[in-house]
Amino acid sequence: MHISVRPASLEDLPRLTALYPLAEEEQTARKPVWALTDGLDRPLRDALSSAISDPESWFLVGEIDGVVVGFIWATVESMLDRAAGRQIGTIRLIYTEPDARGVGVGHHMLEAVLRPMRELGIGDFDARVGPGQRLTKNFFEGHEFAARSIVMHHSDTGNAGDD
Question: Are 163 and 154 a contacting pair, CB within 8 Å?
Answer without folding.
Answer: yes
